[in-house]
Specification:
This protein is an alpha+beta fold. It has a single domain, classed as Alpha-Beta Plaits (2-Layer Sandwich), CATH 3.30.70.2920. The chain contains 4 helices and 6 strands. Strands 1, 2, 3, 4, 5 and 6 form a 6-stranded antiparallel beta sheet that branches. A hairpin with a 3-residue loop joins strand 5 and strand 6.
């Protein structure tokens, strides 16, 4: 069973892509192999609705996939690293698009 973190940001896709690139280079311990970050895309209507439920006006959506199952205990750490990089109030992270991280 796949475990994914669905990420919604109020930053535009280009800004998200820049932050993701920096994170990948700074946190090789997480994002080199164990967790894979997909490209940021413009949020569709569904993504915007999901984010609004968490008081965020989403402009971008991206996915973080757990690639190494033995690292599932680090999901909360990954969510915290992402939130820290994006700044307070700029990112909602949902595990499997349901559970708030």
């Amino acid at each position: 069973m796949a475990i994914d973190l669905f990420c919604y940001s109020d930053l535009n896709p280009e800004a998200c892509t820049c932050l993701i690139t920096v994170l990948k280079s700074q946190r090789l311990d997480l994002f080199d192999r164990d967790f894979l970050i997909g490209p940021a895309k413009a949020s569709d209507a569904f993504g915007k609705e999901v984010a609004q439920e968490h008081r965020l006006q989403a402009s971008s959506t991206f996915l973080v996939a757990l690639n190494e199952k033995s690292q599932s205990s680090r999901l909360a750490e990954v969510a915290n690293v992402l939130k820290s990089a994006f700044g307070p109030g700029h990112l909602v992270v949902l595990q499997d698009n349901e559970f708030v991280r």
